[in-house]
Amino acid sequence: MTTHFITAEIDIQETSTELQTAIEAELKKQGEPLRWAITSVDEAQQKVAVEAVVTKSAEC
Predict the structure, then answer these.
(1) What is the pLDDT of residue 57?
(2) 35 φ, ψ to 5°?
(3) Whole-number Å distance between alpha carbons of 49 and 27
(4) Which of 14, 39, 51, 53 is most exposed, with the fewest beta carbons within 10 Å of its own?
């Protein structure tokens, strides 16, 4: 298993619950999220920046 630091831009959603779901879905594309945080919000472009640590299975 390896860990990776990733960043992602996610569209702002109507509710915080929808935003959390969108963030987690995007991060799962990269691996299993260990932790994540919203690091900035761009209101003009309606995006949030997320930094995360994810784990991936070692490919044999």
Answers:
(1) 87
(2) -155, 155
(3) 12
(4) 14
- Whether residue 52 contacts residue 35, with contact meaning beta carbons closer than 8 Å, is answered with yes
- Boundaries of every domain in the chain: 2-56
Phi, psi of 29 (to 5 degrees): -65, -25
Q: What is the mean pLDDT of residues 14-39?
A: 96
Indicate the SS3 state at residue 3. Answer: strand
Closest CA to 5 of 49, 54, 46, 47: 54
Q: What is the mean pLDDT of residues 23-36?
A: 95
Q: Tokens for 18, please give them.
A: 């929808």
What is the C-alpha separation between 4 and 17, in angstroms, rounded?
25
Using an 8 Å Cβ cutoff, are 35 and 6 in contact?
no
Confidence check: pLDDT of 60 > 60: no
